[in-house]
Design goal:
The protein has a domain at about 1-70: Alpha-Beta Plaits, CATH 3.30.70. About 25% of the residues lie in helices and about 15% in strands. The protein is built from 3 helices and 6 strands; from the N terminus they run E-E-E-E-E-H-E-H-H. The strands form 3 sheets. It has a two-stranded antiparallel ribbon with strand order 1-2. The longest helix has 11 residues, at about 85-95. The two termini are about 30 Å apart. The protein binds iron/sulfur cluster (2 copies).
Length: about 100
């Protein structure tokens, strides 16, 4: 699946991991708009890891049991730097008229 700046989404290590021992089954993570989780036997299961929005941590921030973790954000920032993601996104946003041309 193409993602951005010529990078395939499955080359980007980003998505939630649930610690089942900490999970208190509050269900909040099921509110994810990308449907990354499914409810299996009373707990959330990550079923669409690569549909997680790169850089998003909302479910982890709101998790009652503090049970959701993510890969190292600095690794993600390193990838953005190495692959020119910031400048590619800026160019795309200018082309879409969401940012003024420089
Ligand atoms: S981090 Fe965001 S997009 Fe990813 S699973 Fe959680 S709420 Fe959904
Ligand atoms: S938000 Fe956290 S505690 Fe609640 S169901 Fe999801 S993983 Fe479990």
């Amino acid at each position: 699946m193409p993602w951005i700046a010529g990078i395939q989404r499955d080359q980007v290590n980003w998505g939630p991991t649930v610690d089942a021992d900490k999970c208190v089954s509050c269900g909040m993570c099921m509110n994810c708009g990308k449907k990354v989780f499914e409810w299996v036997e009373g707990k959330p299961k990550v079923v669409r890891h690569y549909d997680c929005v790169v850089g998003c941590t909302t479910c982890g921030n709101l998790c009652l049991g503090n049970a959701i973790s993510f890969p190292d954000l600095q690794e993600l920032r390193r990838l953005f730097k190495e692959r020119g993601v910031w400048s590619a996104v800026k160019k795309a946003l200018i082309a879409e008229g969401k940012l003024p041309a420089e």
